[in-house]
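ok new one. same drill as before - structure tokens go in, u give me an amino acid for every spot. 373 of them this time. try not to just spam alanines like last time pls lmao
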């Protein structure tokens, strides 16, 4: 099959690019799994938090807010965001860390409130108060309907003629006569440009195309779902975490989602939660709160892929013609997806950065994979 662009990967990165790019060109998305978003996208904690991530990630997140607040007509049937809030608390000896976090949050949003220890305890009664010194509330952090976002992107791409092919594992790639021939388990596909949006497998796809490594490292993060204390309403709590990043807890459909906030380097695979990760998370939750995790209802893990500086890697390879990277989204792929997809669409077509992104400081040079070599 012939197309203008082949996108490898139907996670949130590939789907968002397909959504924007299909307005101007023919697009085929190849996904090796039987469904979209099976790996990192489908295992996200689903929080929009403007202060989360390094500078370019924060710029892309802020530039995505307008799309989340007012998606295009027909994109989804209900709002993509639900108010939640994110509370970061500190204990004795962590004053400087809390001050630094407050300054960071204030640099990206006006919806920030410095809380005393008592005020933090009123918002999250489960916090242990012995040595609590206060907290910072990022009030405009929101829950994200990840599936609605992903399906909206894919539905929009299909409506413009884009094709999404599942069970299409890529076996080989070669470039002939200024065109890529991509052989997959669903046949051969041809296009002048291949977009490498393969998540944790992006380095392997790059190597298949003859590209030098960019230093991509998949890192496991584990999570657990557990019951809140009987009789204690938790649905209105903000997501909360300690300033030392040893855990976070987020209300989730009548349950509580917890994580040790780990980042353990692993090879790309269908990752599962490790018992030790879960035990470490439970220990942190029970040490810093009055919550008791008797038996997790469900445990899982996802891969968050990073390069050395923590920023995304997006742009043409520079050494391999017609190869475009859309990788290293870390744990930020959901909240940056609308702006990242729009940016990569522009770069793929040789267009300038859209003004709606540039005004937030989105800089393609800071995201280029060439910086990593």
């Amino acid at each position: 099959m012939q197309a203008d662009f082949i996108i490898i990967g139907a996670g949130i990165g590939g789907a968002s690019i397909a959504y924007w790019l299909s307005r101007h060109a023919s697009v085929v998305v190849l996904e090796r799994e039987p469904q979209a978003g099976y790996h990192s996208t489908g295992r996200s904690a689903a929080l929009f938090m403007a202060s989360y991530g390094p500078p370019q990630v924060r710029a892309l997140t802020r530039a995505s807010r307008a799309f989340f607040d007012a998606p295009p007509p027909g994109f989804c049937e209900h709002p993509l965001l639900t108010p939640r809030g994110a509370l970061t608390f500190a204990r004795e000896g962590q004053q400087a860390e809390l001050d630094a976090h407050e300054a960071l949050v204030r640099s990206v949003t006006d919806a920030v409130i410095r809380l005393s220890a008592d005020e933090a305890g009123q918002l999250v009664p489960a916090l242990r108060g012995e040595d609590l010194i206060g907290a910072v509330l990022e009030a405009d952090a929101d829950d994200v309907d990840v599936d609605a976002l992903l399906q909206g992107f894919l539905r929009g791409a299909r409506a413009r003629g884009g094709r999404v092919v599942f069970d299409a594992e890529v076996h080989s790639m070669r470039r002939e006569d200024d065109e890529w021939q991509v052989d997959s388990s669903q046949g051969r596909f041809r296009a002048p440009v291949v977009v490498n949006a393969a998540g944790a497998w992006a380095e392997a796809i790059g190597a298949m195309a003859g590209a030098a490594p960019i230093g991509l490292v998949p890192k496991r993060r584990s999570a657990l779902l557990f019951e809140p204390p009987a009789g204690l309403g938790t649905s209105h709590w903000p997501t909360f975490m300690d300033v030392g990043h040893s855990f976070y807890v987020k209300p989730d459909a009548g349950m509580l989602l917890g994580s040790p906030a780990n980042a353990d380097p692993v090879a790309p695979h269908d990752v599962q939660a490790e018992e030790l990760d879960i035990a470490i998370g439970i220990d942190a939750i029970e040490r810093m709160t009055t919550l008791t995790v008797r038996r997790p209802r469900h445990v899982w893990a996802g891969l968050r892929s990073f390069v050395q500086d923590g920023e995304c890697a997006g742009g043409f390879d520079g050494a391999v013609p017609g190869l475009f990277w859309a990788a290293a989204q870390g744990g930020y792929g959901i909240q940056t997806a609308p702006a990242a997809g729009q940016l990569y669409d522009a770069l793929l077509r040789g267009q300038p950065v859209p003004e709606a992104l540039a005004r937030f400081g989105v800089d393609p040079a800071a995201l280029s994979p060439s910086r990593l070599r």
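The chain has a mean pLDDT of 97. and btw DSSP finds ten helices and 21 strands in the chain.
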